[in-house]
Design brief:
single chain; 9 strands; 310 residues; Pimeloyl-ACP methyl ester carboxylesterase; alpha/beta; 14 helices; Rossmann fold
């Protein structure tokens, strides 16, 4: 039986830390001396995607930290002057500044969807601060040039929401009907996962963030090359456009029933220059909630490599 928001907060109180751009809300589980893991969620999900993963990792002595990404839950921008950017460089830098603020020493990063994208960006640009990586959909760094060209019609159909968000009617739809729209995405992206209403509502509460719509709309417009990013982050986007290899140990994952990743991402292996293993699992897009043991096992594998046990 799932816990309510009040029960979760009673057990794991939301903490806050300030970075250059944000006041990030996060939950920390496990002993202060535990080996650190930072798990980042995507759109349209929140930190509860990792509840079961965290419970498994705690049994192996981990300290598991799950931050709310910009535009979600209690995370807020530091001022009205900060651009409500959702671009990958912003979200990758958020992770690095989050680690700095918490003085976390070489954690393992894990994520899916936006969270995998941000974790891959952080690992590619700042590998000296990252011990290892677990990434759903492998090398999940966005090639904006590639995104400006057409995909096969079957995939374009799946990406209907991205096309909707390019128009102002998409902003209006997301603003007025965010819960309905995001529930449709949950159903479409995880066709074999039967979640109950309380599970969805627990995460949907995070979509009420006042910056949710602006961040989501900007993310998908920037991703498709239709809107400029934060000028202060362009130097990072320029590096990412060169597809830098990820030089930290990594386990990458695919869900065999994920309509967003037809055929999987095993061909990304050449973009990982350190120890790397790829796994394909029976799952849809939301692998941490659909197959939490498999996601936790990937984190534990990276940890064992770092410990010299394998």
């Amino acid at each position: 039986m799932h816990s309510t928001n009040q029960e979760l907060n009673a057990q794991h109180q939301v903490k806050y830390v300030n970075t250059d751009m944000l006041r990030i809300g996060y939950i920390e589980r496990g002993p202060a001396s535990g080996w650190p893991v930072v798990l980042s969620h995507g759109f349209p999900y929140d930190i509860h995607a990792f509840d079961d993963v965290a419970a498994i990792l705690l049994q192996s002595g981990a300290k598991v930290i799950t931050p709310y990404t910009r535009g979600f839950g209690p995370t807020r921008f530091s001022s009205d002057k900060v651009m409500r950017s959702g671009q990958q460089a912003a979200r990758g830098l958020d992770i690095i500044q989050f680690l700095d603020a918490l003085k976390l020493d070489s954690p393992i990063l894990g994520g899916f969807d936006w969270g995998a994208n941000a974790s891959c960006v952080a690992a590619a640009l700042w590998p000296e601060q990252i011990a290892g990586l677990v990434s759903y959909a492998s090398y999940d760094i966005i090639d904006i040039e590639e995104q400006t060209h057409a995909f096969p019609p079957s995939l374009e159909r799946i990406c209907w929401y991205q096309h909707l968000f390019q128009a102002e009617r998409g902003r209006e739809c997301l603003s007025q009907s965010r819960n309905e729209l995001c529930r449709i995405l949950w159903n479409e992206w995880s066709p074999g996962w039967e979640f109950d209403e309380s599970t969805y509502e627990r995460s949907a509460a995070a979509f009420e963030n006042p910056d949710f719509v602006d961040v989501v709309i900007h993310s998908y417009r920037h991703m498709l090359g239709c809107e400029s990013g934060d000028p202060s982050l362009q130097r990072f986007e320029d590096i990412l456009a060169q597809k830098p290899k990820i030089a930290v140990p990594a386990v990458t994952l695919d869900g065999s029933a994920d309509p967003l990743k037809p055929g999987g991402t095993a061909e990304h292996a050449f973009l990982f220059s350190a120890k790397h293993e790829h796994r394909t699992l029976r799952s849809g897009h939301n692998l941490p909630q659909e197959a939490p043991q498999a996601f936790a096992d990937a984190v534990l594998t990276v940890h064992s490599w770092l410990e010299g046990k394998d």
